[in-house]
UniProtKB/TrEMBL annotation:
<dbReference type="GO" id="GO:1900735">
    <property type="term" value="P:positive regulation of flocculation"/>
</dbReference>
<feature type="region of interest" description="Disordered">
    <location>
        <begin position="376"/>
        <end position="412"/>
    </location>
</feature>
<dbReference type="GO" id="GO:0005829">
    <property type="term" value="C:cytosol"/>
</dbReference>
<keyword id="KW-0677">Repeat</keyword>
<dbReference type="GO" id="GO:1902472">
    <property type="term" value="P:regulation of mitotic cytokinesis, division site positioning"/>
</dbReference>
<protein>
    <recommendedName>
        <fullName>CBS domain-containing protein</fullName>
    </recommendedName>
</protein>
<dbReference type="InterPro" id="IPR046342">
    <property type="entry name" value="CBS_dom_sf"/>
</dbReference>
<dbReference type="GO" id="GO:2001211">
    <property type="term" value="P:negative regulation of isopentenyl diphosphate biosynthetic process, mevalonate pathway"/>
</dbReference>
<keyword id="KW-0129">CBS domain</keyword>
<dbReference type="Pfam" id="PF00571">
    <property type="entry name" value="CBS"/>
</dbReference>
<dbReference type="GO" id="GO:0042149">
    <property type="term" value="P:cellular response to glucose starvation"/>
</dbReference>
<dbReference type="InterPro" id="IPR000644">
    <property type="entry name" value="CBS_dom"/>
</dbReference>
<feature type="compositionally biased region" description="Basic and acidic residues">
    <location>
        <begin position="401"/>
        <end position="412"/>
    </location>
</feature>
<dbReference type="GO" id="GO:0004865">
    <property type="term" value="F:protein serine/threonine phosphatase inhibitor activity"/>
</dbReference>
<feature type="domain" description="CBS">
    <location>
        <begin position="157"/>
        <end position="214"/>
    </location>
</feature>
<feature type="region of interest" description="Disordered">
    <location>
        <begin position="269"/>
        <end position="341"/>
    </location>
</feature>
<dbReference type="GO" id="GO:0005634">
    <property type="term" value="C:nucleus"/>
</dbReference>
Length: 412
């Protein structure tokens, strides 16, 4: 499969990932291609990737082919982005085996038939598992009893969070996600209020060469493009709420994760004096049920859990602009117009009126790691998987600042 058709299949199918076979006749998978890979490819094609000496020659050749519109074998780009090794589980594995695996930081597993040459049966993701446990809470009483407890009491999540100011160019956000091996990044204003969210899935709006100016425009402008496209394609005009508070219950957090289909939620301080609006979303936002059926909404005693170790503090790389233009693969959704791209201030976005100051992040890995430990399992340290997906970088002001605020708030 070639890069252009594969990116079209990825976008058109709505699937979060494509499995790669050695040949059309094979039934086993040799790799994956997802939006993180597409983001890495687009950065390469735009001349915004800085390879090391060992990969410089191959990167230059790929960049040349991309600029000239030459089709590129998928096997040549599937490993451009930093990703975790492909993990498989037999179809006979138990749900708790999946909980332990995902709790160690694995984001998805390929389910195989171990009795038939490792034939692929399907893909199982963290989000699908969290949704299953949420909808079937009564069957997992040890996990179910955690839902009424507050994030602050459960001590889950990280106070070290990667964010970007809304006035920064979009290309910097894409570079950070690529270099750090993350799938989304919080966009904040000058007071560290969360004004939006950019994910690697959003790069589907950048796969036309006419979208190149968006890379140089601000992150807040791109968020407005995302919201506009969502309204045109999906008929959705509400502003997704990607944040919770330290006092939010695990039930509220999981319900919001399931409703927004997010891999992580930003933890904000609703009492921040710099917050530009009310701490709770308005009626136009996504409706989130607080507890699942059969789950008590009353408070329970605080349960002490060992906190997860926060990852090292990275720093955003500097943008290296290039006059190179993007390739033009098939795009089934309306491409954003780049004719008029005025800069939009962060305060103009709906999210600026709904959130508070960014103090941390809670992810699907954090939730499943908590579930695994509460169930007596021994998941791997998620920090090890994080370190494999990130490139070496030094501390940044935004990451340190968010961590300092988080320590103050979570210590209340």
């Amino acid at each position: 499969m070639w890069t252009r058709p594969s990116s079209g299949v990825l976008i058109e199918s709505g699937a979060p990932v494509l499995l790669i076979r050695e040949t059309p006749q094979h039934t086993s998978a040799v790799g994956t291609f997802d939006y993180n890979d597409l983001n890495a490819y687009l950065l390469l094609a735009a001349g915004l990737t800085q390879p090391d000496e060992e990969t410089l020659a191959s990167y230059e050749e790929l960049a040349r082919k991309a600029r000239e519109g030459i089709t590129i074998p998928l096997k040549d780009v599937k490993d451009l982005g930093r990703k975790e090794p492909m993990t498989t589980l037999p179809a006979t594995a138990s749900v708790m085996t999946a909980v332990e695996t995902f709790g160690g930081g694995v984001h998805r597993v390929v389910v195989v038939n171990e009795h038939n040459g490792r034939e692929v049966v399907g893909i199982f993701s963290q989000l699908r598992l969290v949704k299953f446990l949420w909808e079937n809470g009564r069957s997992f009483p040890v996990i179910d009893q955690l839902y009424p407890q507050a994030l602050r009491d459960l001590r889950i999540g990280s106070r070290e969070v990667i964010s970007i100011n809304g006035d920064k160019p979009l290309c910097e956000a894409l570079q950070i996600m690529n270099n750090e091996g993350i799938s989304s990044i919080a966009v904040v204003d000058n007071h560290f209020n969360v004004v939006g969210n950019i994910s690697t899935t959003d790069v589907k709006l950048l796969t036309r060469s006419s979208s190149l100016p968006l890379l140089r425009n601000t992150c807040t402008h791109f968020i407005s493009v995302i919201l506009s496209t969502r309204g045109l394609v999906d008929g959705k005009d509400s502003f997704p709420v990607f944040h919770v508070h330290p006092g939010s219950t695990l039930a509220h957090t999981v319900a919001k994760v399931v409703a927004t289909k997010s891999h992580r939620l930003w933890v904000t301080d609703p009492l921040s004096p710099s917050s530009s609006g009310p701490p709770t979303p308005s009626h136009s936002s996504v409706h989130i049920p607080l507890v699942p059926n059969g789950t008590s909404s009353s408070s329970s005693q605080s349960q002490s859990q060992p906190p997860l170790q926060p990852p090292p503090s990275p720093s955003p790389p500097s943008a290296n602009y290039s006059s190179s233009h993007l390739p033009q693969p098939y795009l089934p959704v309306p491409g954003p117009s780049s004719a008029v791209t005025p800069s939009i201030p962060a305060s103009a976005l709906p999210g600026a009126r709904l959130s508070g100051r960014l103090v941390g992040v809670v992810s699907l890995t954090d939730i499943l790691n908590l579930h695994a430990r509460a169930s007596g399992l021994s998941p791997a340290d998620p920090a090890e998987n994080r370190s494999r997906r990130r490139r070496s970088s030094s501390s940044s002001v935004s990451v340190r600042r968010s961590g300092e605020i988080g320590r103050e708030l979570f210590g209340r």
